Amino acid sequence: MAEFMLELKDVHKIFNKGTINEKTALSGVNLQLNAGDFVTIIGGNGAGKSTMLNAIAGVWPINQGSILIDGNDVTKLSEYKRAPYLGRVFQDPMNGTAATMSIDENLAIAARRGKKRGLKWGVTKAERERYMKKLAKLDLGLEDRLTTKVGLLSGGQRQAITLLMASLEKPDLLLLDEHTAALDPKTAAKVLALSDKIIEENGLTAMMVTHNMKDAIAHGNRLIMMHEGNIIYDVSGEEKKALHVSDLLKKFEEVSGGEFANDRMMLS
Fold first, then answer.
1. What is the pLDDT of residues 15-25, one digit of tens each?
2. Could you give the CA distance from residue 230 to residue 195 in angstroms, rounded to a whole number?
3. Strands (E), 4-158
């Protein structure tokens, strides 16, 4: 195993380069994650949080720098070629699952990601039993609904299934991109608790972008704050546990020289 599970070295991303709409989204980001790190990521709108996750996932090429996952240089790999290393859950519960397919079929797709697929596409009895056990752990009654089409589930149930799909084959890195933002507070809390459980039980390395400062403090062992495409604050361990929202606001004002202009974050 490599020294770091994830390494970003001087990563730059510029959109619409050379045009009137040129925008620097990441300006020389450096970051190292140890195996088992669970990092929460906060910052105002346009700070570069989701851009960083998209850069890691290979959604588009970066302009400069390199990205290593468990010592493997994936900088030049397409999104599809990086898939075996990564699990990902998006903000929209509709993303990440196939609505017209049943729960067990969705899980089977996730289980076979990155593997050679033959013509045998049915879900085996052994697979079904495995999925039932995994679903029972979610405590949502989904283990009795294996053949239900995913499109008929609630947003929270869909996110729970997506979480399970993303972690089924123990990825090197789990990316959670504001994965509770579209859910009501009660469901969001349940999905977050589930995320903690899945990350802990599988010993996963994870990154979670969130707009909610309280959640960023309460979850994970490390917190980073981004501003204008850079990491401006990186705190972990006991120091992180002792943080309050007021500390984060103060930190942001110190570094950015301005108020934290994001009502959504302040209120959540």
1. 999 999 999 99
2. 26
3. 6-15, 23-33, 38-43, 64-69, 72-73, 86-89
